[in-house]
Write a structure and sequence with these properties.
This protein has 206 residues and is α+β, with helices and mostly antiparallel strands. It contains four helices and nine strands. The strands form three sheets. The chain has a four-stranded mixed beta sheet with strand order 7-4-3-9, with no helix packed on it. Strands 6-5-8 form a three-stranded antiparallel beta sheet, with no helix packed on it. A hairpin with a 2-residue loop joins strand 1 and strand 2. The longest helix is centred in the middle third of the chain and has 20 residues.
């Protein structure tokens, strides 16, 4: 991934972008902000075990933790109540988190699946693009209700996809754009306008 600048473009990162799009504040009452680390600083939670097995996985957490109420025995220490007790749970916050998870799971279950086999083609030798155009190919999705696909792209400094090119119901496209300057992805779109998570291309040499 490093040689194409795709450190923030793995399947987990695309899942995170998908969740922010499908679980907006107007539906969930929650602002979801993606942090481009594996987990909190020098820490690692259960989702990492799934990532290690090749599954896209992310962790939802509050931005400012109260360490008195996690990984502590239930006890009063120096006049401060420690422990994970119900009285310290923000149930309104928990409900908003549940709405984010529900919206994301619903979209994953009902939207088109991520396009498979996405490739970006370069000219030999490896590492030399050889052209200022960009050719992408992918496998057709299995859904019968697709209207087609969208190529998404962004500047390398942008956190999320900022531009969309509708390419129709095809499985190959050549764009008059240099792959040196931007990142590309492809997503499927169904007849209701639902969009899949974005696929990030693998490099193939032609």
């Amino acid at each position: 991934m490093q040689e194409v600048g795709g450190e923030n473009d793995g399947a987990t990162h695309q899942l995170a972008r998908f969740v922010t799009a499908e679980a907006p504040f107007r539906l969930t009452g929650m602002n979801v902000r993606v942090i481009w680390r594996r987990d909190r600083y020098l820490r690692g939670s259960d989702h990492i075990s799934f990532q290690a097995q090749g599954y896209p996985a992310a962790r939802f957490t509050e931005p400012r933790e109260n360490y008195n109420h996690e990984h502590r025995d239930v006890a009063v220490v120096n006049g401060v109540q420690n422990g994970d007790l119900a009285e310290f749970v923000d149930f309104n916050y928990t409900a908003r988190v549940a709405r984010v998870n529900g919206a994301a799971l619903w979209a994953l279950a009902t939207n088109p699946s991520t396009p498979k086999g996405l490739e970006i083609h370069i000219t030999a030798p490896v590492g030399f693009s050889g052209t200022n155009t960009t050719t992408l190919t992918w496998n057709p999705n299995p859904e019968s209700n697709l209207t087609g696909y969208e190529v998404v792209w962004r500047e390398t400094t942008a956190a999320d996809w900022t531009n969309v090119i509708r390419v129709g119901n095809v499985t190959a496209v050549t764009l008059d754009m240099s792959k040196d300057n931007v990142q590309f992805g492809v997503r499927a779109v169904d007849q209701a306008g639902h969009r899949s998570p974005v696929a990030f291309p693998q490099v193939v040499t032609t």
